[in-house]
Each structure stands twice: as C-alpha cells, then as structure tokens.
Amino acid sequence: MKQANYSSDKLIIDCKDIYLREYRIEDLEKLQEITWQPEVYEFLPGWNATIEERTLWLTEYEIPENQRFKQAVMAGGDIVELYLRMAIVLKENDEFIGWCCSGIKDELPAPNREIMYGISKHFRNRGYTTQAVNGMSEYLFEHTNVEILNAIALITNQASNKVIQKCNFERLNSIEIENESYNHYQRCKRQGHI
What we know:
Radius of gyration: 16 Å
Strand content: 25-35%
CATH superfamily of the domain at 3-101 and 112-147: Gcn5-related N-acetyltransferase (GNAT)
Distance between the termini: 7 Å
Strand order of the largest sheet: 1-2-3-4-5-6
Order of helices and strands: EEEHHHEEEHEHEE
Largest sheet: 6 strands, antiparallel
Shape: globular
C-alpha cells in the first residue's frame, strides 16, 4: 500500500525512492526542460509545447484541476473525468525528475482512464518510473472509484512497455492513434495491489 498524505491540503504519494506530489508553478522550468528532451518528445508527441503554452496549461488547467480532483476524493472518491497531474520527485534532494498523471484518454474504449508518465533522460533505468506508476495506481484504486486503469505505449518504446508490464498491467491488443501503433494495457483493481 502506498501512503497518501494530505499535509497542509497537499497530496503526496510516498514511494520507495521518490514521491509524487501535485504540480507547482515552480515546476515550470524543469517540466519544460524535460518535455524538450528528444528522448521524451519522441514517445510523447505534443508534450514539447512553447513556454507560453506550458505556463497557461499549468496555471489555468493543471494546478486548478488537481484541486478539484482532491475535492472529489475527499467528497467520496467519484473523480468522474478529472485529471490528476503529479510531479515525480527524488526523496534524497527534492528534485523534480518527471511526472505521472491520470486522466481520460478519449481514443480508448470505456472505461478509458489512463495512467501516463515521463521522466528525464538523466534518471532512466533506476526504477523510479515503475515506483511512480505503482504509487499512482495504488492511490487511485484505494482512494477513488477507479476500477480499471489503462496504459498505452508506442510499440517501439521498449522502456515504457517494460515499465507497464512490471506494474502488472496486462496487454490487451495493439491500437492505432493518429497513425501510430501502440500497445494497449489494462490493470484492474480486483487484481490486487503490489
């Protein structure tokens, strides 16, 4: 079980070497830097936005929606179609190294709540993304009405496919989204927790 902590009304999901916390405006520069790493935007098309777009998204949509998500959890856990966007932060020095988010993926059949993530090229292959995906999954299953989570990864993205499989997602099929082939996975609440 991953511990969720609401210290000072801020959501923190504790994992082994990292923790997940809500986005902050101070994350803007690091988030922008990571989304422009070729290793990230190769597999996450559209994430390499301009600084103006990123600022608008963060201040007008992402941070406020996290607040609405938390309110829905505290009101009983029916999160409907709300998104949760969390920073992946190293415990040892509080460095922002990536993100792990959950929201509705319109291109998937219902129930279509997805878990998605990205991590800096400097922190790959250390188990941090696996910890983040497991932490987010556990949190959603324990504190919300989510019963099924989806994950997709480009067929060519071996690292991402590996993370998803390590997190007990089962491969369903291949799907096409915007002329790209993805592996589609699901993890059900009834499969138990890690």
